[in-house]
Design a protein that fits this description.
Blueprint: H1 2-39, H2 50-64, H3 66-75, H4 82-89, H5 94-106, H6 118-133, H7 144-152, E1 157-161, E2 165-168, E3 177-180, E4 183-191, E5 195-203, E6 212-214, H8 233-236, H9 267-278, H10 286-293, E7 304-311, E8 317-326, E9 333-335, E10 338-350, E11 356-369, E12 380-389, E13 392-402, E14 408-417, E15 426-427, E16 431-438, E17 450-451, E18 454-458, E19 463-465, E20 469-477, E21 490-498, E22 503-511, E23 522-530, E24 537-547, E25 552-554, E26 557-563
Parallel strand pairs: 19-26
Antiparallel strand pairs: 1-4, 2-3, 4-5, 5-6, 7-8, 8-12, 9-10, 10-11, 10-13, 13-14, 15-20, 16-18, 16-20, 17-18, 20-23, 21-22, 21-24, 24-25, 24-26
Helix pairs in contact: 6-7
């Protein structure tokens, strides 16, 4: 009976399993059929999960990091500081990394005001030399000798034993004759940040050509583990036993017994020197390092800056920089009956990648009688500097410091130096000046604010009072030439437009023939405008220049403000 019950139970279980399997097959076939019929009409893509999106982003980042990873882990691995490395790893875009690389080489450039970076060129020369001379199954730059050579250059003295063999130990190593593995000793008279008379020993105990740094002078001893062979003088005279070499606690196997070691072989001196050799070389130019590390901008000394562009040749544009300080923003030192303010100015023009192109430094001083100081507070001081530049885009950085008040301003702006096409009508900047006058013949082209034969002092904030006269200066280039008269043919129209209602309040047209010394190559426009008839407000000076021979038109403009 028991066996029958067991049989019945197994039969029911099997029947149930078969039924479930059959229904599963039917369900699967039904789903497959449904899927098949659905696929014939539409395929719906499954959206990416957050995990998949992050994985793709990580893969993309890894792909983009390829060349930068090589630069970081190969090109500059020995000379980049820990702080620089961490900063580089935090950068997100290729543009940021490119700027970092430019700054990295700039701060090490011994002559930052020249086109060549001697440090960078020497660094890559050393890498090439290391790869040529120190490779041993791995690239030469990866070896210890390659590392030291790349960091510190060629040693002042090299003691080389490329085949090892018989060797007379120096007295500080215990003296006596032994046989050695291949080894080299490099001596540097001085390494900045490490010290004088630096000796570095490399040993090749595997005889494979791969030398490594050692701090144990006896590592090169091929007979070190051979009893009774390669004994030192102390061991030969019975003053020491060779087995004592293996009980030393200073990290060496010297056979000098209990004799004191020279300072250069002291355990801590050796370890300290090794640690310093492993670090990135000291950066020589701390002023550039400070500029790179600092992102602080100062604006405790208000300053206004403007740039104007005057064509000199097709390849050179005179860039006129004007700085303005209000007298009320300066601090004065009173001595006797005079009050004096002094501002030191330093400026640098660089390419977009911060390659230095030009620089200037100067001092602006102003002195007032002490009793007139308060009345002078409404005035301003203006400084001018002209720099010849090739057409292109540059960065201008200006630092101004009030010597008396110890206030400072760090200012940065773009210089978009225009390119002048010989076949196209062109114009310089439209300069609105508070002083516009001819200069004596002996002063042409020299002095502040002098452009060709005129003194043009820009009003940097372009704000004038009603009673003032506003000077207008601009230059026009590349007119067509009349074959008979060899002169240009055209007009210059001046319109002053009220910015509030866009209405023209003043208008005047001047023919080029009425402008003195006008030529097809250069027309200098100098005009003075009385502002007493203009009510206070914002205005736009619009010029319309027409070249009748080439049928070309130019419309430069400049905004200005009139106050009561």
């Amino acid at each position: 009976m028991k066996s029958l019950a067991v049989f019945r139970t197994r039969f029911l279980v099997g029947l149930t399993a078969a039924s479930l399997a059959a229904s599963g097959v039917a369900s699967a076939q039904e789903k497959k059929s449904s899927s098949s019929s659905g696929s014939s009409t539409e395929t719906v893509a499954k959206p990416l999960s957050q995990k998949q999106i992050k994985k793709k982003e990580k893969a993309l980042e890894k792909e983009l990091m390829g060349p930068w990873k090589k630069w970081l882990n190969e090109d500059v691995v020995y000379i980049i500081t820990d702080e620089e490395k961490q900063a580089f790893k935090r950068l997100k875009t290729d543009e940021e990394r490119q700027q970092f690389v430019e700054q990295f080489w700039l701060r090490r450039d011994p002559t930052p005001d020249t086109e060549e970076n001697e440090y960078k060129e020497e660094h890559y020369r050393r890498i090439a030399y290391a790869n040529d001379h120190y490779a041993s199954g791995i690239p030469g730059w990866k070896t210890d000798r390659g590392m030291i050579y790349i960091k510190y250059g060629a040693p002042d003295e090299v003691e080389s034993h490329p085949s090892g063999g018989s060797y007379e130990r120096p007295i500080e190593e215990g003296g006596g004759e032994t046989s050695t593995f291949p080894f080299e000793k490099w001596r540097y008279r001085y390494i900045e940040g490490i010290g004088n008379n630096i000796e570095i020993e490399f040993v090749d105990p595997t005889m494979s050509g791969e030398y490594h740094i050692t701090t144990d002078p006896e590592e090169k001893d091929a007979l070190l583990y051979v009893p009774g062979a390669g004994l030192t003088w102390a061991e030969q005279m019975g003053l020491a036993d060779k087995t004592q070499r293996f009980t030393r606690t200073d990290g060496t196997h010297l056979g000098t017994g209990n004799d004191p070691l020279p300072e250069s072989m002291n355990e801590f001196t050796r370890l300290e020197t090794l640690a310093k050799l492993q670090r990135a070389p000291a950066i020589k130019f701390k002023d550039l390092e400070a500029a790179v590390n600092s992102t602080i901008r100062y604006n405790t000394l208000p300053m206004q800056v403007r740039a104007d562009y005057i064509r000199i040749t097709d390849a050179t544009v005179l860039t006129s920089l004007t700085l303005q300080f209000r007298n009320s923003d300066l601090q004065y030192q009173t001595k006797d009956t005079a009050a004096k303010a002094t501002v030191n100015i330093y400026g640098r023009v660089t390419s977009l990648t911060r390659r230095p192109v030009n620089w200037f430094e100067d001092t602006v001083s102003v002195t007032f009688p002490a009793e007139m100081l308060q009345k002078s507070m409404n005035g301003s001081q203006v400084y001018s500097k002209t720099i010849p530049l090739a057409p292109g885009t540059y960065r201008l950085n200006v630092v101004a410091k009030d010597v008396v008040g110890n206030t400072m301003n760090t200012y940065e702006m773009a210089l978009n130096v225009p390119h002048y096409d010989e076949e196209q009508l062109g114009a310089s900047s439209v300069i609105l000046a508070d002083q516009l006058e001819r200069v004596p013949t002996n002063s042409i082209g020299t002095g502040q604010f002098v452009i060709r034969s005129s003194k043009v002092r820009p009003r940097v904030d372009e704000t004038f009072k009603q009673g003032e006269t506003m000077g207008i200066y601009t230059e026009l280039y590349n007119f067509g030439m009349d074959e008979k008269t060899k002169k240009p043919q055209g007009t210059v129209e001046f319109d002053v437009v009220n910015a509030a209602n866009n209405q023209t309040v003043l208008s005047q047209t001047e023919d080029l023939t009425a402008i003195p010394n006008a030529s097809p190559f250069l027309v200098t426009v100098e005009k003075k405008l009385q502002l007493k008839s203009l009510p206070p407000g914002k205005y736009m000076l619009k010029l319309k220049v027409v070249d009748k021979l080439r049928n070309q038109t130019l419309t430069p403009s400049a905004a200005f403000t009139v106050t009561s």
